[in-house]
Amino acid sequence: MDQNTTTPLLEVRNLKKFFNTKQGLLKAVNNVSFEVKQGETLGIVGESGCGKSTTGRAILRLVEPTAGEVIFEGEDITAFRPDRVRAFRRDAQIIFQDPFASLDPRMSISEIIREPFEIFKLYSRNEQLERVQELMKLVGLSTKLTNSFPHELDGGRRQRVGVARALALDPKFIVCDEPVSALDVSIQAQILNLIQDLQDRLKLTYVFISHDLSVVRHISDRVAVMYLGKIVEITSYHNIFTNPQHPYTQALLSAIPIPKVDAKRERIILEGDVPSPVNPPRGCIFSGRCPFVMDKCREAPPALTETADGHFVACYLVNDTAEEPES
Fold it and tell me: Directed axis angle between helix 125-138 and helix 155-167, to 10°?
């Protein structure tokens, strides 16, 4: 985790992704903003359904954003024509959550890793095969598995194939969409170590998405906490664990098991259910479950405001600024 202080590689500004459903307009991602510096890992954490995976896919235009800007190396990719998006794919890739569902079962490991070369017409046939073997070695796969198929591999090896495929085009930026959540705990550690090692060796920049704060802690330079389509807190991984300021972040941290027999931590039990993103609360999105809710929390949503150097929180307990109403 080597945080760089240069100009951000990626800037996300007021990103929105809405879906039309039978129940109404579902606001999966609603006015999300953050930046990621070159060589940095930004962890995005939150409960299932909070919009974190949709955020990652909208950044890459795997789903089209409803509104907002995604600035990559100074250019807004949301304004790119299809041919420019295709070129952007060489610089930005994704590692998917389920290593079995994301690999074509009819293709061999060699064909899966080689496919990006075919799409972009890179290298001769022999060079492609040499590059496949280089990538397999890079991610810790035996080249004896070249002609194997995904169903013949365990989950950890399948995910290594997914990592190799993501690296095939020498990208600068990778979205890691819960890349270890479908794996056994012992395998999770191996894949996390691999992802970190590759970042150091290849100077990669990550957005790492997870529902598990303990996983995010070990890989992220900064952490953004999402709830119901919005970022409620974003700061360094150290501050998230030592000085969480948003009540939702505090509740998430209280749920992390302590690996000591006699150790105890006061568990914060949140009342009620997560509101529907089709019909979110009028004010603060967390107001219906917050133990510290005030009247103004139900009137207007708090703005994501910097409360300390690099520490942003959307909560009236730490700042009195409301979001500007949408035009």
Answer: 130
More confident residue, 4 or 272: 272
Asked whether the CA dihedral 210, 24, 246, 255 is positive or negative, the reply is negative
Angle between helices 155-167 and 185-202 in degrees, nearest 10: 20
Spans of all domains in the chain: 105-170
Q: Which helix (H) or strand (E) holds 173?
A: strand 173-177
Cβ(112)–Cβ(103) below 8 Å: yes
Q: Where is 186: in which H helix or E strand?
A: helix 185-202
Q: Angle at which helices 109-120 and 155-167 pack, to 10 degrees?
A: 20
- Of 41-45, 152-156, 218-222, 254-258, give the lowest mean pLDDT range: 254-258
pTM over 0.85: yes
Contact (Cβ atoms closer than 8 angstroms) between residue 226 and residue 44? yes
Three-state DSSP class for residue 31: strand
